[in-house]
Amino acid sequence: MGWEEKQVRGYGEFAETAQRCHGRPIFALFCGDKDAAGRSWCPDCVTAEPIVRKELHNMPDGSVFIYCLVGDRAYWKDPNNEFRKNLKLTGVPTLLKYGTPQKLVEEECFKAELVRMLFTED
Amino acid sequence: QEAAKYDKKVMVLDFVTPTPLGTSWGLGGTCVNVGCIPKKLMHQAALLGQALQDARKFGWQFTEEVKHNWMTMTESVQNYIGSLNWGYRVALREKKVTYENAYGEFVGPHTVKATNKRGVEKLYTAKRFLIATGERPRYLGIPGDKEYCISSDDLFSLPYCPGKTLVVGASYVALECAGFLAGLGLDVTVMVRSILLRGFDQDIASKIGEYMEEHGINFIKQFVPIKVEQIEEGTPGRLKVTAQSTVGNQIIEGEYNTVLLAIGRDACTRKIGLDKVGVKINEKTGKIPVNDEEQTNVPYIYAIGDILQDKLELTPVAIQAGRLLIRRLYGGATTKCDYVNVPTTVFTPLEYGACGYSEERAVEEFGEENIEVYHSYFWPLEWTVPSRDNNKCYAKIICNIKDNERVIGFHVLGPNAGEVTQGFAAAIKCGMTKEQLDGTIGIHPVCAEV
């Protein structure tokens, strides 16, 4: 059965997508927006993305991987943005298992072993 | 984690055998999952309930009646615990410590067998082993105990409000749980076989009991349950408890939604194959005797924590002993763990902090004529306006006359007892005398200045 990826932008799209996939394991990677050339304003996100993508095959069957662009730098820096308020995100990139306290933040996302652990942990 | 710092190859085997009701939990041991952490959070929930009552006297106006939702509290607490479990997983991984969620037991010299929850077995060998398996709640051994009663292992993640509860036991676990359950508005009864808080200063223990009784907790003294039957299934259901007096033939019956057993904890040392490697344990208690370097009678096997014989059963003690042990083994250090003058706190509704000797132990060890006890009742300023009890908070110090009136025991009964005691523990470790204590000017207005 494998897994599927959904790409969303902004909190509203994220929440809606997560809701629709209720009942399946949901993993989400939050990154800063990308410019026309496809590069994110967040250098750590640029580093983390390929590392995370390489480990996606470790997710359990039926999983959903939500790739979510949070917004531009100004939006992210606002301490009251919806991601901070509702998901308690403290930094980008953040990789988390939705609905659990399991998450990896910033440099933790650079470690393939930790990413693998998040995807395969019971 | 400490051993990994010295570049040792380290593996941790952690496995939780589910309770009779099926409860289990993640990495972190008792303290994190079913002990100190959820206990203190729920105690805090109860204190906040009290604070809301006091608030009106300080001028806060709210018309709504204040109610408590068990599920909301429990979900928040469990969520926090989950983040701790995950945090430990990440920390171990980052420090390259191999972690297996499997039940470890010795099968031969230098060899353990690890069985995971699917029954898959693996064998591992190592140069040295450290046993820190802790304890689990004891059951009464009466009809209906495992089927219908819960223990602290189940309480902190109970998926429904316990309702009218009977707490069996008079340990600090029993009293702390009874305390916060009552503070959350539940009807609580405590059934005690003999004395409260065995091993603690009895003068203080009776004050704690009195306070709890005056604040709505029922005590049934000198009785033990002999049978638990189910009247009605449910979440919670209804249970009938039959109990017998310990000083006569009287039998009583009572109906409760939940029966919480807190009569003691037994060391998890009987089923880990210690006999296969020759580690001696105390057959009666299951505890492991070790020398002052935490070594068992088998030189390559060490032990720390609640399973040790004659040592304090406290999380920080186990942590300290573990760290120092590793530093001695691999870091060339020589410091041994100091088990004397360890401060503790009991988080009953009226908190109790202590460090050093109880009055009874001091009299026993030094003789009544050689000790001097200084004591005082006090009324926390914060309790004055809401008209809370003015004669319950209490502090006492016990001094050794023969040794410059050195302070050998510190006891305080009142709010924030843990915070107050920590500082005095450091002073006692430095050998503070009564004169030095008198010479220290108090901070005003705080409870600790007394």
Uncertain runs of chain A = none
Biggest β-sheet description of chain A? 5 strands, mixed
The CATH architecture of chain A: 3-Layer(aba) Sandwich
**Tally of DSSP helical segments of chain B:** 14
**Helix-strand string of chain A:** EHEHEHHEEH
Largest sheet of chain B: 5 strands, parallel
Enumerate the strands of the largest sheet of chain A in spatial order, edge to edge or round the barrel.
Answer: 1-3-2-4-5
Subcellular location (chain A): Cytoplasm
Family (chain A): Belongs to the thioredoxin family.
GO cellular component, one term (chain A): cytosol
Pfam family, one (chain A): TXD17-like_Trx
Q: Topology, pairings included?
A:
The complex is a heterodimer of chains A (122) and B (450).
Chain A (H helix, E strand, L loop, with lengths): L3 E6 L1 H10 L5 E6 L11 H13 L8 E6 L3 H5 L4 H6 L6 E4 L5 E3 L6 H9 L2
Parallel strand pairs in A: 1-3, 2-3
Antiparallel strand pairs in A: 2-4, 4-5
Chain B lengths: L1 H4 L5 E3 L15 H6 L1 H22 L12 H25 L3 E3 L1 E7 L2 E6 L4 E5 L3 E3 L3 E3 L7 H4 L1 E2 H4 L9 E4 L3 H12 L4 E5 L9 H13 L3 E4 L1 E10 L5 E8 L5 E6 L1 E4 L3 E3 L6 H4 L23 E3 L11 H16 L13 E3 L5 E5 L2 H8 L4 E8 L2 H4 L8 E8 L5 E8 L3 H13 L4 H6 L11
Parallel strand pairs in B: 1-2, 6-17, 8-15, 9-10, 9-15, 10-11
Antiparallel strand pairs in B: 3-4, 4-5, 7-16, 12-13, 13-14, 18-19, 19-22, 20-21, 21-22
Summed up:
Chain A is α/β, with parallel strands linked by helices.
Question: What report would you give on this structure?
Answer:
The complex is a heterodimer of chains A (122) and B (450). Chain A has 122 residues and is of the alpha/beta class. A five-stranded mixed beta sheet of chain A has the order 1-3-2-4-5, sandwiched between helices. Chain B is built from 14 helices and 22 strands. In chain B, helix 3 runs parallel beside helix 7. The interface between A and B is small, with 12 and 11 residues.
